[in-house]
Design goal:
Layout (H helix, E strand, L loop, with lengths): L5 E6 L3 E7 L2 H6 L7 E3 L2 H10 L4 E5 L1 H11 L4 E4 L6 H12 L3 E2 L11 E7 L5 E6 L13 H5 L1 E7 L8 H15 L2 E5 L3 H18 L2 E5 H8 L4 H11 L2 E5 L5 E5 L2 E5 L12 H14 L4 H15 L11 H9 L1
Parallel strand pairs: 1-5, 1-9, 2-7, 3-8, 5-6, 9-10, 10-11, 11-12
Antiparallel strand pairs: 2-4, 7-8, 12-13, 13-14
Helix pairs in contact: 3-10, 7-8, 8-9, 10-11, 11-12
Length: about 325
């Protein structure tokens, strides 16, 4: 694949996260389900923001976090997403480009403001996400450039994007461009509630278009409506070439054609689980596109996930390349 410009082209929602600590009682008062992601409108975002404690603003968005992680590792990352020409949009664009990610998507000059996600982090490090999609809903199928997909080893799609008006069309367009160019398609299921909303459509897309599937245990069990992880893993590997399935403190399992590699989680004090799956995908895809075997790619993913859950925010703070060199030699 020497003719590629990018290792990973990530497509998803461009979001600025606002993180604040919160108690379980606060979640109950606000009638929020701990650990879940819900979509809110602008009025709800304003009301919840007013009720929250002091917040920290950091650029986020699931696929964008993955692209940032790939770049932090020394890989070549690109991101497609929509922001508004407002203060948060400028923050997002600056942050992702400063990370070394190519971000050339058209900026909106009218319509909804840049998306934000109000992230409430409870003392047990669980994060509850309240997302106002804002300008993200303006992303269009036409924003997928076939030449850019063809110039990428893997195109990575976040399940959250399916909620956008043209989300399904964007997925289909990216997958078709990848197929025509002989590139691989990766998808993350994103969230169990996202799977619940789109289960049938997700199954069809996974079977027909996905080469590499990322999911946590709850998401993959929900996708296949089975009770056990092993049953879900068996179903997943029957549908895709590679299934990279995370299990929180139990680590991860990577499956391919009868292979099953168990990878341990890295020991770390958990502060905030926001971005754990995103950075796992970044580490895995960096290793995978560099030609590493599945177990080593999964170990890269575990190291990156371990770094991001050790602090607030979903973007890496440590030098990931140095961290991997230190832990693996």
């Amino acid at each position: 694949m020497s003719d590629t410009k990018f290792d990973v082209l990530a497509v998803g929602n461009a979001i600025v996260d606002v993180l604040a600590e919160a108690s379980d009682a606060f979640l109950q008062e606000q009638e929020l389900v701990k650990g879940a992601m819900r979509l809110i409108d602008e009025a709800e975002a304003d009301t919840l923001y007013a009720a929250m404690g002091p917040g920290i603003e950091v650029s986020g968005g699931s696929a964008a976090n993955t692209a940032a992680g790939v770049a932090a590792l020394g890989g070549r990352g690109a991101f497609v997403g929509r922001v508004h020409d407002d203060s948060l949009g400028k923050v997002f664009a600056h942050d992702i480009r400063a990370q070394g990610v190519s971000f050339e998507s058209e900026t909106a000059t009218s319509g909804p403001q840049t998306a934000r996600c109000l992230v409430l982090v409870t003392p047990d490090a669980q994060r509850t996400l309240n997302t106002y999609l804002g300008a993200c809903v303006g992303l269009r199928e036409a924003d997928i450039e076939p030449a850019e997909v063809a110039a990428s080893k893997v195109v990575y799609l976040e399940g959250y994007l399916w909620d956008a008006p043209e989300g399904p069309a964007i997925f289909a367009s990216a997958a078709e461009a990848a197929k025509q160019a002989g590139r691989e398609v990766a998808m993350t299921l994103s969230d169990p509630f996202c799977v619940d909303r789109h289960r049938a459509a997700f199954r069809d897309f996974v079977v027909g278009s996905v080469d590499i599937l990322f999911a946590n245990e709850d998401e993959v069990k929900s996708l296949y409506e089975v009770e056990t992880f092993d049953a879900a893993a068996d179903r997943a590997v029957a549908d895709v070439q590679v299934a990279a399935l995370t299990r929180s403190e139990k680590g991860s399992v990577i499956c391919r054609d009868g292979e099953r590699h168990a990878v341990d989680a890295r020991p770390v004090k958990v502060v905030d689980t926001t971005g754990a799956g995103d950075l796992y995908a970044a580490g895995f895809l960096y290793g995978y596109t560099a030609g590493e075997d599945l177990a080593r790619a999964g170990t890269y993913g575990s190291i990156c996930a371990g770094e991001v859950i050790g602090h607030l925010g979903a973007r890496p703070r440590a030098n990931l390349k140095a961290l991997i060199a230190e832990q693996l030699g």
